[in-house]
Write a structure and sequence with these properties.
The structure holds 2 protein chains of 2 kinds.
Chain A (H helix, E strand, L loop, with lengths): L7 E2 L4 E6 L2 E6 L1 H7 L2 E5 L6 E2 L3 E8 L3 E6 L3 E6 L2 H4 L3 H4 L7 E5 L11 H14 L1
Antiparallel strand pairs in A: 1-2, 2-3, 3-9, 4-6, 5-8, 6-7, 8-9
Chain B lengths: L3 E2 L3 H6 L3 E5 L2 E6 L3 H10 L1 E5 L4 E6 L3 H8 L11 E8 L5 E11 L2 E6 L4 H11 L5 E4 L5 E6 L3 H6 L14 E7 L2 E6 L8 E6 L4 H12 L3 E4 L1 H10 L34 H10 L3 E8 L10 E4 L2 E12 L4 E9 L8 E6 L2 E8 L11
Parallel strand pairs in B: 1-3, 4-14
Antiparallel strand pairs in B: 2-3, 4-10, 5-8, 5-9, 6-7, 7-8, 10-13, 11-12, 12-13, 15-18, 15-20, 16-17, 16-19, 17-18, 19-20
Classes of the chains: A alpha+beta, B alpha+beta.
């Protein structure tokens, strides 16, 4: 399982890359592996205001339907439209494909996210719980 | 309740199978991934463990007339060593199960039933059986493998004591040696591809499993329940519990072809005669999504805001690369070209009734 050192992570298996006040959000390698073949991504509307941990979209694999959460509060300023036609990119290169970008209203929320080491431990615990 | 395991449980773990609870059985949902396995079966071959299926043996002088009385299809028409797909209905014409009948002779049949229905079917059959007929649940005597795909015959032939060409579509051979182990082999399956189903003793199953994978090399891989479902649905093969249940009749489910009203008397015949004459109120339709979204089992279907039915099965079809499904809806909306809404997470998404959009079966006639 691939975990990138330069990213932050949520307990819902999203990764976050922060550039100035913008949060690029995607799903982790662990998440895509567990979902299996992804066949559909339901995107939120651009300009929507979201609270941290609010469901903003849906990811469907052949067998599962999973909510996508925004780990931070703010305004959605961009969605990755490429995924609408090629959702399998989330399986192939989860860390190269952000799903959405949120302009953060509470910059301090980034401190609540996990770093790579904490996230690796978190995944191990999830595995053990089954 | 403790989960039941098939004789191939250890093999699945070794192969990295992701195990799930499937109606009380611990079975692999996938190995390398559902899409990869699906594609292997469409282009080369895949090996399935279907040992959870139930087997019920019926033996005795009156076996044939008894099978006739229980089933909608006409078993008299089948020859020895032929396999027949049939339906077992209740008095109302509701489908109790769909099954395969293996005809050894007019006095000896093997019924292969859905795993989840085995106990129910056995009780029903026992209840109606005359005293001098032998009816036995022999599910635990059999493991079952399915080898499916365009390369299936070439792979199995390498290990086989007979010429597999001899087994025509929906026929079986009761005594085939596969790598030396005795098996019953039929040219049947649940994928829309050519292939075989292999019945054998549970203790031999792991060795035959290994032998087939070895013989097939790069051309075969183990396949889990995930791809079993996408393959069967893409080929429009119905699944009990979704396309059929005790409240759905064969005519509603689009399975009228397997009901032979004029050939014999059977349980449910009267109700089905009536329904055929009057026309069923609901009908199964194929549909394709026009709006974005994947239809899934139990999603409601609306027309102008009014519920007219539901999705029985739906998927993103891996080979066809389309979002398609089967639905049971009011017959007045069942004509191809008609549009309706599928409710996906409370949102109405447009879809259209269509015809012949599913994968064209490649089974050998």
């Amino acid at each position: 399982m691939d975990i990138r050192k330069d990213l932050l992570y949520s307990d819902q298996h999203e990764w976050v890359r922060i550039e100035d006040d913008k949060a690029f959000i995607g799903i982790t390698d662990y998440a895509q592996e567990n979902l299996g073949d992804i066949v559909f991504v339901e995107m939120p509307e651009v300009d929507r205001e979201v609270e941290a941990e609010e469901a903003v979209g849906v990811i469907e694999s052949v067998k599962a339907v999973a909510d996508l959460f925004s780990p931070v509060s703010g305004t959605i300023v961009e969605i990755n439209e490429e995924l609408e036609d090629a959702p399998q990119l989330l399986n192939e290169e989860p860390y190269e494909q952000h799903i959405l970008v949120v302009s953060m209203s509470e910059l301090g929320e980034a401190d609540d996210l996990m770093n790579a080491d904490d996230y690796a431990r978190f995944c191990e615990e999830e595995e053990q719980r089954g | 309740m403790e989960l039941k395991q098939t004789p191939l449980y250890e093999k699945h773990l070794e192969a990295g199978g992701k195990m799930v609870d499937f109606g009380g059985w611990e079975l692999p949902v996938q190995f390398q991934g559902i899409f990869k396995e699906h594609e292997m079966v469409r282009t080369r071959a895949g090996l399935f463990d279907v040992s959870h299926m139930g087997e019920i043996e019926v033996k005795g002088e009156k076996a044939q007339s008894f099978i006739q009385y229980l089933m909608t299809n006409d078993i008299e028409k089948a020859r020895a060593k032929q396999v027949q797909y049939t339906l077992m209905c209740n008095e109302n014409g509701g489908i109790l199960d769909d099954l395969l009948v293996y005809k050894y002779s007019t006095e000896h049949y093997l019924l292969v039933v859905n795993a989840a229905n085995t106990d129910k079917d056995y009780a029903w059959i026992k209840k109606h059986a005359p005293d001098d007929l032998q009816v036995e649940d022999v599910s635990s005597h059999y493991a079952q493998l399915a080898l499916q795909g365009p390369r299936a015959q070439d792979i199995l032939q390498q290990l086989c004591s007979i010429d597999l060409q001899e087994i025509k579509f929906f026929y079986f051979h009761p005594e085939v040696k596969i790598n030396g182990y005795p098996c019953m082999v039929s040219r049947t399956g649940y994928t829309g591809e050519d292939g075989f189903e292999i019945y054998l003793s549970p203790q031999d199953a792991p060795r035959v499993w290994d032998a087939i994978l070895k013989a097939g090399g790069e051309d075969v891989c183990p396949v889990g329940l995930g791809a079993r479902d996408t393959l069967r649905l893409e080929a429009k093969l119905p699944l009990y519990g979704q396309e059929m249940n005790e409240d759905i009749t064969p005519y509603e489910a689009g399975l009228g072809f397997f009901v032979k009203l004029d050939s014999h008397d059977f349980i449910g015949r009267q109700a089905l005669q009536k329904q055929k004459k009057e026309g069923p109120e609901r009908k199964q339709v194929e549909f394709v999504m026009i709006g974005k979204g994947i239809p899934r089992s139990t999603y409601e279907i609306e027309k102008n805001g009014k519920t007219i039915g539901y999705v029985t099965s739906g998927l993103h079809a891996p080979t066809l690369k389309q979002n398609i499904g089967l639905a049971l809806i009011d017959q007045q909306y069942a004509n191809p070209g008609e549009t309706f809404d599928v409710l996906i997470r409370n949102k109405a998404v447009k879809a259209q009734v269509a015809k012949d959009i599913f994968y064209k079966k490649k089974t050998r006639k």
